[in-house]
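Tutorial sheet, problem 5. The two components below are modelled jointly, 544 residues in total.
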Amino acid sequence: MLRVFWAEEGGLPAGDRGLAYGDGLFETIRMQGARGTLVGRHLERMARDAARLGIEVPPAALRGAFCQAAERYGAGPKPAGWVLKLILTRGEGGRGYRAEAGLRPHLLVSASALPPSPDRHGVCVDFSRVPLTVHPMLAGIKSLNRLQQVMAARELDDSLFEVLMLNAQGELVEGTRTNLVVNRDGAWITPPTPSLAVAGVMRQWLLETLRSRGEPVLERALSPDEVLDGRCRGLYLMNSVIGIVPVRQLAGHDLPVEDRLATICDPLETLE
Amino acid sequence: MLRVFWAEEGGLPAGDRGLAYGDGLFETIRMQGARGTLVGRHLERMARDAARLGIEVPPAALRGAFCQAAERYGAGPKPAGWVLKLILTRGEGGRGYRAEAGLRPHLLVSASALPPSPDRHGVCVDFSRVPLTVHPMLAGIKSLNRLQQVMAARELDDSLFEVLMLNAQGELVEGTRTNLVVNRDGAWITPPTPSLAVAGVMRQWLLETLRSRGEPVLERALSPDEVLDGRCRGLYLMNSVIGIVPVRQLAGHDLPVEDRLATICDPLETLE
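Model answer (structure tokens):
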């Protein structure tokens, strides 16, 4: 069974495999009081990706920990915004990389303040000089192996909201902490799941919402030129904490910012 | 300056970036009492790779922590074998992946028992089904991002000492926890540093020792066929804890095991 740790009571044990090898996963959930954005999708992704890594955690245990955390940090007469972070690790033990079967997973739970809201009229971003490398067995998994994103985020300064990462094929894939979608040639285009470092729950919700509204959605590789050649009708970044934000400038090039996506999808509907 | 934590007194703080993102490095050093194998190389690699990641740690602080640890865990009248592990992280703080400059790095120090010695007459290994993906900016760095090695190590059972990983080009690169060298066509052949997930200090010591003895050493890509086609005179695995061990069987194929390497290099000479 899951062993739950509360961050304000201390960290994980020194021998935890999450620290040693990044042998685990995390979720960050935007909360409003005791309710959260896309909670079901967050917990389902964590359980599904844990299974991909061979970490045995019953989905009901994750749900139980979420409910305790929502009560612990989010109760009160005036619901305020905050961020819940769940770090799930394979636990402690094993011989080096090799884990014994049946280790008891650890869940570290913490609460933090909401980050500053991005400018809803559009943000400025650049290309990262750090290439994105995605391991085929770990694609899409929000694992604790995030060093390349840390290295890319070192390029950020206060004038840049995000940097966008290209893979070795020169395809535009995602930001350090955001997925992306491009509106072009009458369709919404986004890189396919197997190419992603993190397959975000907000991205998945957006794609499903667009499709349910009859909008054409294409999951395919994107070149940077397809954003910069003047035919792009909008570039949007998203994650479940910031929602969906338009990009008004990429690498010094102005991009069109339209209201259309906001009229189709309202991430505020995603509170559960 | 560095903040040192002793594992027996607890783990790192809950907000440590090593746990959150694998934002750090580690070294495991084979110790005999208060002396260790290739200590200078271990500490130099950690300082050099920390600099590559932008983690500011004075080499003298690492050396000081090592000396304290050697004294703390290794003092005593009868020197016995043990393993010292140093985990260096960027510390605590920053906004998500983005770290502020000037964070105070953390060093978690722990001692553990030596692993069982491998059979000096040769070990059995197999190919891993997990491909090896090396980020060009992180090549060779013994970072805390080791999830692909954990996934490959899940293929180990008690009959297998190691599994060998191939990259996307089908080249044989390294084991989960070992580097490799092949003796073939009168030369010692090993995959080049930029292709490696971890550039081991024992590998580097071995290559320098071979070259100093006038042995031909080639750092170039290796195909699995070059080990299996009958012209291979020996395949060796190495790391600084186990030393250098011959492989007598790879994926069910018998390989020649000769004494030649042992007569050229003695890893026991590396105690400092």
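Marking note: Chain B touches chain A through 54 residues (CB under 8 Å). Full credit if you identified this.
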